[in-house]
Amino acid sequence: MSNAPIPTPHNGAGANDFAKTVLMPGDPLRAKYIADTYLENPKQVNAVRNMFGYTGTYKGKEISVMGSGMGIPSIGIYSYELFHFYDVDNIIRIGSAGGLQDHLKLMDVVVAMGACTNSNYAAQYGLPGTFAPIADYGLMSRAIEAAKAQGTNVVVGNVLSSDVFYNADSSVNDRWKSMGVLAVEMEAAALYMNAAKAGKNALCLLTISDHIYSGEELSAEERQLGFGKMMEIALELA
User: Fold this and answer.
1) Mind telling me which residue stretches traverse the membrane in this protein (predicted)?
2) Within 10 Å of residue 73's Cβ, how many Cβ atoms?
3) pLDDT, tens digit, for every residue of 46-56?
């Protein structure tokens, strides 16, 4: 536990308000939905900047859920504070992603074994090379087993954490696709780097909400409420 002041400028929770495992959807309203739908006796522990956070129990085990916001800078702040200031051990990102590979369909669940990135986030560590952000194997293997028990097929592999949503380079997705990258999202690489530096554990689970090449996409309401399989896999990791 850090000696940094709690609450922080971004988190109004007290020192013991978060469970050891935190689920992090990007959308704070999705965090509220998970708390209201799945958690027993949920307590709101953060509302600073409307980045809602809750702690409750799931099948008798304490677990928290909090929004991360969009993009690497946002999840970089929130996950850093949870790991370093609130003594959280495990963060599971549960988010949406755009499919790149042809075999991926809407609502498929992707387990991000690794996270490529076009971000400069790793520059802060001064490494003499390129860092490869990867998931914690223990969390990943448990998630895959939970999916099997649930009867949900998951796709495991590499994703791209991009700093750019509207990219001026119209051919960039083709190049990532050619390297076998499954899907594109905007947060996992920073989460994995923060976990590695802190000696903690992280995993990213994604539901395909749109496909870059087919043009299919879910509605905003479907994105917020329709990711039940992914949410239930993540909840089993408490």
Assistant:
1) none
2) 14
3) 999 999 999 99
Bridge partners for 95 per DSSP: 206
Domains and CATH numbers, the chain: 21-236 (3.40.50.1580)
The pLDDT tens digits for 30-67 are 999 999 999 999 999 999 999 999 999 999 999 999 99
pLDDT of residue 2: 57
Buried b (16+ CB within 10 A) or exposed e, 121-134: bbeeeeeeeebebb
What CA–CA distance (Å, rounded) separates 112 from 205? 6
Binding residues for a purine D-ribonucleoside, as ranges, are 10, 185-187, 209-210
Q: pTM of whole model > 0.70?
A: yes
- Rounded-to-integer distance, Cα 4 and Cα 93, Å: 24
Three-state SS string over 19-86 comes to CCEEEECCCHHHHHHHHHHHCEEEEEEECHHHCCEEEEEECCEEEEEECCCCCHHHHHHHHHHHHHCC
